[in-house]
Write a structure and sequence with these properties.
Blueprint (H helix, E strand, L loop, with lengths): L7 H6 E3 L5 E4 L12 H6 L3 E3 L5 H7 L4
Antiparallel strand pairs: 1-2, 2-3
């Protein structure tokens, strides 16, 4: 039986916290920032939790996390 593998893209994007929640970085703050307001850019700082509706697919990509 072949080994299960973790998706390389998922292990770069997500971190599993000790409580079982998964944190992710915010999107929309990489480029084309000139047309975005200062408020928008400020609110995109930091990391957030993966939403409950996406947890099943994230867990499937990271079977050992």
């Amino acid at each position: 039986m072949p080994k299960m593998k973790t998706k390389s893209s998922a292990k770069k994007r997500f971190r599993v916290r000790p409580g079982g929640t998964v944190k992710r970085g915010q999107a929309f703050k990489r480029h084309i920032l000139t047309k975005k307001t200062t408020k928008t850019k400020r609110q995109l700082r930091g990391s957030v939790d993966v939403h409950d509706t996406n947890m099943v697919s994230v867990r499937a990509m990271m079977p050992f996390a």
